[in-house]
Write a structure and sequence with these properties.
mainly beta
Length: 432
């Protein structure tokens, strides 16, 4: 059985990186004893780490156990011939988030090959580069394999952030592609016998320093799902809500509708959400100059606004006013975009699979304590795939200079099933 996959992560806070120590290995010959393991310190310039958590992975037939705490020493007991696995230490922040993981790959050779039949991997290596730099190709040194047990090799990327991939064969060279600034991980090379049993594992740690890219690749954050569990406050002036909850990723709102003619955002049930950077859950203030906009992307389920005064809109809100875009019903079903008390509309009827993109500007207002919110534009696409084909669009006609504490807001009236994501539009990278 192969060594379990363990993630090596990073978190950035104001461009400070929490980085784990290099991966290590301990492979013993048949009948050998594993050494005690103490992990080297993590790189933690902002002292983000609050505690440590041990993770012990092993092949299913093993009876091995581990004892120890913090960075160690850790003792692996009752490991027998043929056992292998990973000892990992997760560094946690004060909120319990895993911000970096150190790994130690261990194993004892199977019995039957004699004292000289142990396969030993080469020493672990590393390649950390500056922001925007390219990772070097990696060729692994030869494994020690006196009896010719190795039949083939299998490489994999061990990382739970980003979309880095590897390409190469044998001992290499291997090319790591798709890694971005601030991403760290491990290239793991398993040496396998003719039955594809892993007999030894070599590890190569890699990473790109955090920083602001100049090619535009970091000008948007990742998408973040909005969940009813993240609601911070509610404003329901017309007492519409009957219930709300999640079904998978879908928000299901059940409620009444305001009186005839009342169908702008201020007539609905409004839920507030803290604006967070999806990369690290840090709070983002549009007046701080870090972002220039927010995008919402949503898709309806079985129920959507199709009765008079029913609506679903999403926007940026400061407790008094804001910008909103979405879908509602007055005399007909319509796309909507505008301010809290008045949205402009264009007629449109939802079709199954439609995806809606709401763009709202949100930028620092000339270094003041206010932010410029808006304009707002709502675009409906035939589906969420590529190519993107727009079916209709509507835009608000004005922007607002607002101060205060800004939140994301979702507004409902009537029965609505909808899945909602948002992402931040970052300050543009400097291509000049």
């Amino acid at each position: 059985m192969g060594v379990a996959r363990v993630a090596v992560t990073r978190v950035t806070r104001d461009y400070a990186v929490v980085r784990p120590p290099l991966p290590t290995t301990d492979f013993q010959s048949s009948g050998g004893t594993l050494g005690a393991k103490t992990f080297d310190p993590f790189v933690d310039p902002e002292r983000v780490i609050a505690r440590y958590e041990v993770v012990f992975k092993k092949n299913s037939s093993s009876s091995a156990t581990v004892s120890g705490s913090k960075r160690g020493p850790y003792t692996i007991s009752s490991a027998a011939d043929g056992d292998q696995g990973v000892l990992a230490v997760n560094a946690k922040d004060k909120d319990g988030n895993t911000i970096a993981t150190a790994i130690h790959v261990w194993g004892i050779a199977s019995a039957g090959g004699g004292g000289d039949s142990t396969v030993t991997p080469p020493a672990s290596t590393t390649n950390y580069v500056a922001a925007d730099a390219s990772l070097s190709g990696k060729t692994f040194s030869a494994f020690t394999d006196a009896d010719g047990i190795i039949d083939n090799y299998n490489a994999s990327i061990v990382s739970n952030l980003g979309n880095a991939t590897e390409s190469g064969t044998g001992l290499g060279p291997y090319t790591i592609s798709g890694a971005v600034n601030g991403e760290f991980g491990v290239l793991k090379l398993d040496a396998r016998d003719s039955s594809n049993n892993v007999v030894a594992t070599a590890v190569h740690a890699w990473g790109i320093a955090d920083g602001v890219a100049t090619d535009g690749s970091q000008d948007f954050s990742a998408w973040k799902l909005l969940n009813t569990a993240d609601i911070t406050s509610t404003s329901d002036p017309n007492n519409l809500e009957t219930s709300k909850g999640m079904s998978g990723n879908e928000i299901r709102f059940r409620g009444s509708r305001p009186g005839s003619g009342l169908d702008d955002p201020n007539d609905g049930c409004l839920y507030n959400f803290t604006i967070k950077d999806p990369a690290d859950d840090s709070t983002v203030d549009p007046a701080a100059g870090e972002i220039i906009g927010i995008q919402f992307y949503f898709k309806f389920g079985t129920n959507l606004p199709q009765q008079t005064a029913a609506q679903f809109v999403c926007g940026v809100w400061n407790g008094t006013n804001g910008m909103f875009g979405g879908y509602k019903r007055d005399t007909a079903t319509r796309l909507a975009a505008g301010i809290y008390t008045n949205t402009l509309v264009t007629s449109y009827t939802n079709s199954s699979g439609n995806a809606y993109l709401v763009d709202i500007g949100a930028a620092d207002a000339a270094a003041s304590s206010a932010a410029i919110i808006g304009n707002c534009q709502t675009t409906v696409f035939d589906d969420s795939g590529s190519p993107a084909r727009s079916a209709a669009r509507v835009s608000g006609t004005s922007a607002l200079s607002l101060s205060g504490t800004f939140t994301l807001a979702l507004v409902f009236a009537g029965d609505v099933d909808v899945t909602v994501y948002y992402r931040l539009v970052k300050a543009p990278s400097d291509p000049f």
